[in-house]
Specification:
This protein is α+β, with helices and mostly antiparallel strands. Helices cover 32% and strands 21% of the residues. Strand 3 and strand 4 form a beta hairpin.
């Protein structure tokens, strides 16, 4: 799918994109990622980020988004500033969120619903009243190293500044989306066919510097929330499994 990258993320060395739309105050468009977070067993930070990234890619590659009922909304979102919000719910709220147009992905016991992008002031009650912005820190459990399982993409999250769980989840989803949009067609096709296998890691500063030097894409934050403008929050590169 072609699209204009947002002002929060761009490929290394490319000029800043120009938004095709200017949102009025209070009504920016965004994709909402809703995490299922049971009270007694919250998901691990890395697993939630991996599932959210996979859910984002699954929605964008769905035929309803490529050439169907969701296409106008997705195109409008891609043509402006590509924002994502991460929210959570549980129990009955998780069941209600399934009524909002989108796709739910479950991976390793973690569930995330990627909702079709829409204006913030057009969100239904299932999103505004049955979910909350993710402001809780999720447990940090190291994921398997990239070499220990087959994957098509490695997403690395900056160690400094330390991102909140919600911010890290959004950054991982941004990086995965940009990587898919910028991959050579043969790579993106094989990756999609395999179900978008990917790994998210939280490297130390030394490894992060190496990852940035090798990255195929990077996410540069616009500074709207939490981090200063122009902060590099994530980077990604595709792995031999899809090269």
């Amino acid at each position: 799918m072609a699209g204009i990258p947002d002002d929060q993320a761009h490929r290394t060395g490319q000029p800043e994109p120009v938004s095709g739309f200017e949102d009025s105050p209070g009504s920016p468009w965004c994709m909402t990622l809703v995490l299922n977070m049971p009270r007694d067993s919250p998901p691990a930070r890395t697993a939630a980020a991996e599932t959210a990234a996979t859910a984002t890619l699954t929605l964008l590659s769905d035929m309803r988004a490529v050439n169907g009922e969701w296409t106008p909304a997705v195109t409008r979102w891609l043509s402006g500033k590509i924002r994502k919000h991460c929210r959570y719910t549980r129990g009955a709220g998780w069941q209600r969120i399934q009524q909002v147009p989108g796709i739910t992905v479950s991976r390793g016991g973690v569930g995330v619903r990627a909702c079709v992008p829409m204006a913030l002031d057009a969100r239904p009650d299932e999103l505004t009243k049955r979910t909350q912005l993710l402001n809780t820190e999720l447990p940090t459990v190291p994921a398997a190293a990239p070499g220990q399982r087959e994957a098509g993409l490695l997403v690395s999250i900056t160690p400094t500044p330390w991102l909140s769980s919600g911010k890290a989840i959004v950054a991982a989803a941004h990086a995965a989306q940009l990587a898919w949009m910028r991959m050579p067609p043969a790579h993106s096709a094989s990756w999609a066919e395999a179900g978008f296998p990917l790994v998210v890691e939280h490297p130390d500063p030394g490894l992060w510097a190496l990852r940035v030097s090798e990255a195929d894409v990077e996410v540069i934050d616009a500074g709207l929330l939490e981090t200063p403008a122009n902060t590099r929050t994530a980077c990604a590169h595709w792995l031999p499994a899809i090269r």
